[in-house]
Write a structure and sequence with these properties.
By secondary structure, this protein is an alpha+beta fold. It has 21 helices and 34 strands.
């Protein structure tokens, strides 16, 4: 079957004219033509038709110059407006001693006015200028020489950060925190290079160009009338001072969000902030989860105008709209989702054809029918870019009226969908594909457990259809892995929660055939949509599309992983790119059920590149797809909405869409996805610590999952909670890190503990405020070994000093589970 309304042939590509030059006069005219309008940097760029990085840099320079001349005023972030009605389109500073044409002010007064425009009397402007706009050395002007680089701050530890340059291919620059000028994660800065250290470029921040989010989440400590906020983020390298008038109703020990209003010039001082949100006493469920939301900049509610727009949308589907769509309402259709799900954004239909093949429809909620461009709903969805799934709540991309109502494919209701329909035989061979707008009527809402029962027992309503789909899915799965897909999977931790949010249990979510069946058909739809758009035009430039791309891992990282796996007795030959997936899949099968499984699979996943959204059709290494998109979850992912719009546009014969705006949204969505994943991990970690707080003194079996100079991390096998055993707390010996061999070694006993070793630990403490768990090793070695080591330590204590220093004695055999608890340790 052919797609509906195939696109018209593309016209011959015209030679693109050179971009028009950007001048200071053009920039100022944008403000003088709109004297009462606030213009953001991006708005200005769009008005002036900016398309290159050089033009963007020019605009930034002109904005700064106009600000120095007092023609425009910086309000907040990157928003500007005309300074006043008498502002002249000046392009040069007046000569010393002369008067200005408009004001008649002497140059000395103008210099003062320029400083006011630069640093500002408005507190908003003032705090932006002090937020790192100072420079190394005595010269207060920014350095613009070739030795400075613009980049984005990525905090690494409390001691240093990396600045990621704008220019592609440039090395990241290490900047120690005392030279960061209080720049925060995501801030755009100008760095002056000053050599290298350990083979890595090193520099100092000389200017903070844009503060992304000058807010900090942490615990308030009040001393007298003064407050200090200790950040939750361990990468933060300063506390925030809060004066008495800025504390609000916050008290000592509360978890708060502070906005920094003043950044000091002296790096030895602390920034000053004001409490803008108080979450309550630290350690409580609501306080900590809300603090996580604030820490990652997640929204607490939808703006009122967004809610109003969503409530105003009619839930009646006009017959005129149905007439434009392919009607699937009389074909068997159902959804399969988690038992507690409310947003059903995908459904499957199945019908047997006369030729014996099966027509299987993957029907996706037609979100873009309701969320139209240039609406508040669209702007909010684009900004959020993804739903965020914390342990005890969902922060949706779209209001509930849409996500759980209009767009949710609820049973026994007519729903508008965008569908990918396939003709397949029972061997999984694909014959035809069709894409277009549809209307469906779901006959049944299955939970995964309901569907799994029909797969296992073959009984119940729609059991035949479910099993037919499952059989075809298994064939599709086999085809993927034959083509080189990677089988490593992360384990998903789930919680049983009490009504107050307290965790009653932690378990690992088990993926069964029902989950895999849905996954295979979603993968098929995503792949075929991407292939369809890619193949619409056979020559470059191809039609613009949102792709989900996953690069092949770097050879160096693969070799490091191979060396690591060798420590466990696994030999990997990863030097041949064509055999990487086969080698990794073989390893995955060999480690299944062994203590080192999670360690090796987790590290293998970290060895892989990260999947991102891009307009470049680079393929997906992990799935072994040449082209892949995200089409199947528009309720919770903005890139899927973008894919829907682009596909509809091309199906209706639309021309190619400009790449740059789509690529910008891809980058934004990738960044928001990463932020959401970090927030989800933080909420899981908090709940794990909260759960383990009730397990103090209990013994668990775990595996060594990480090693540092301070201690070793142990992951409990049953619930995946991870904590640390400090090296200084291991009884019976003094242990040191052997970094090259991924192990720790006892100085006296020569006992070795390495990655993947099984150990028994007792829960020592669980700190809700720091989200950390501490363990002690359980001593379960034979009694004769314990007695022998105790005697040796006693002999060491009683021996002459010189003998003790040079003996190096100690038991070199013994068990593998640690020394006597509480025994003396050699230093």
């Amino acid at each position: 079957m052919e797609p509906t309304n195939p696109p018209r042939p593309a016209r011959a590509k015209r030679e693109q004219p050179a971009p028009a030059p950007i001048t200071q006069e053009l920039v100022l005219r944008a403000f003088t033509d709109n004297p009462d309008k606030v213009l953001a940097y991006r708005q200005l760029s769009r008005r002036l038709g900016v398309t290159t990085k050089q033009q963007r840099e020019e605009i930034f320079g002109y904005l700064k110059k106009l600000r120095q001349l007092g023609a425009i005023t910086l309000l907040q972030n990157d928003e500007y407006r005309l300074a006043d009605a008498s502002a002249a389109p000046a392009t040069e500073q007046p000569a010393k001693g002369k008067k200005t044409a408009k004001s008649g002010a002497p140059a000395s007064q103008l210099a003062s006015h320029e400083r006011a425009a630069e640093f500002g009397q408005d507190p908003i402007v003032h705090r932006r200028r002090e937020a790192g706009f100072d420079y190394v050395g005595g010269d207060s002007r920014p350095s613009r020489d070739a030795n400075t680089i613009i980049g984005t701050v990525d905090l690494a530890t409390a001691n240093f950060a990396f600045v990621i340059p704008e220019a592609e291919g440039s090395d990241d620059i290490r900047v120690f925190t005392d030279q960061l000028k209080f720049a925060l994660q995501g801030d755009v800065v100008r760095v002056r290079m000053r050599g290298s250290r350990d083979g890595r470029p090193v520099g100092d921040v000389v200017e903070v160009l844009k503060r992304q989010r000058p807010e900090v989440v942490g615990r308030l400590q009040v001393q007298g009338t003064l407050g200090f906020v200790k950040p939750d983020n361990r990468k933060m390298y300063f506390d925030v001072f809060v004066p008495p008038h800025a504390l609000g109703d916050a008290r000592n020990g509360d978890k708060v969000l502070v906005r920094i209003v003043e950044f000091p010039e002296d790096s030895n001082r602390q920034p000053t902030g004001e409490v803008v949100r108080n979450f309550g006493q630290a350690g409580g469920n609501e306080a900590e989860i809300n603090a996580i939301m604030a820490e990652f900049g997640l929204p607490f509610e939808f703006p009122s105008e967004v809610e109003e727009e969503s409530e105003a949308i009619s839930d009646v589907i006009p017959e005129s709209e149905v007439a434009l769509r392919r009607d699937f309402r009389n074909i068997t259709t159902f959804t399969i989702d988690p038992a507690d799900a409310k947003d059903f954004d995908d459904a499957l239909s199945i019908e047997k054809l006369e030729n014996g093949n099966w027509e299987i429809g993957v029907h996706i909620a037609d979100v873009t029918h309701y969320v139209r461009p240039n609406t508040e709903l669209e702007r909010e969805g684009k900004h959020r870019a993804t739903s965020v799934y914390l342990v005890d709540r969902v922060i949706p991309m779209l209001p509930e009226r849409l996500s759980n109502g209009l767009c949710s494919l609820r049973p026994n209701e007519d729903k508008l969908t965008f569908s990918a329909v396939f003709e397949l035989d029972e061997a999984g061979k694909l014959y035809e594909s069709w894409f277009g707008k549809t209307v469906i009527h779901s006959d049944r809402r299955f939970s995964y457990e309901d569907a799994q029962e029909r797969i296992e027992n073959g009984e119940g309503d729609y059991a035949e259809e479910v099993n037919t789909l499952n059989g075809i899915a298994k064939k599709l799965h086999a085809q993927r892995f034959k083509q080189g897909a990677i089988s490593f999977e992360t384990q998903e931790v789930k919680f049983r929660l009490a009504p107050d949010g307290k965790p009653l249990g932690v378990f690992v979510k088990e993926r069964k055939d029902a989950h895999k069946m849905i996954e295979e058909f979603m993968l098929l739809a995503n792949r075929k949509v991407a292939e369809f758009v890619f193949n619409l035009k056979k020559t470059k430039p191809r039609y613009t599309m949102v792709y989900r791309t996953h690069d092949a891992p770097e050879p160096e990282r693969l070799q490091n992983f191979a060396l690591f796996a060798q420590k466990f007795g696994y030999t990997l030959k990863l030097d041949n790119p064509k055999k990487v997936s086969t080698e990794l899949n073989t390893l995955s099968e060999e480690v299944m059920g062994k203590p080192e499984q999670n360690v090796l699979q987790g590290l293998a996943i970290r060895t892989m590149s990260k999947a991102i959204y891009s307009t470049e059709p680079l393929g997906h290494f992990g799935l072994a797809f040449a082209h892949y998109s995200h089409f199947t979850s528009p309720i919770r992912r903005y890139p899927d909405m973008m894919a829907h719009r682009l596909l509809e546009h091309y199906l209706l014969g639309g021309k190619n869409v400009p790449v740059e705006p789509v690529e910008d949204e891809c980058k934004h969505s990738s960044a928001r996805e990463k932020l959401a994943a970090n927030a989800e991990r933080a909420s899981i970690k908090f709940k794990q610590v909260e759960f383990m707080a009730d397990e103090i003194g209990n013994v668990f079996k775990g595996v060594v999952s990480g090693l540092t100079e301070r201690g070793m991390y142990i992951e409990i096998e049953s619930n995946k909670c991870e904590g640390m055993v400090r090296l200084s707390d291991i009884p019976g010996d003094t242990f040191e890190l052997d970094k090259d061999n991924y192990r720790i070694v006892g100085r006296g006993s020569k006992r070795i503990i390495q990655f993947g070793d099984e150990l028994e630990v007792v829960v020592k403490s669980a700190n809700l405020l720091d989200r950390t768990i501490d363990f002690d090793l359980v001593d379960n070695r034979p009694d004769d070994v314990k007695r022998r080591e105790a005697e040796e330590r006693k002999a060491q204590r009683n021996a002459p000093r010189g003998y003790r220093e040079h003996s190096g004695g100690g038991h070199k055999g013994g068990g593998s589970k640690g020394g006597p608890k509480g025994g003396n340790r050699r230093r």
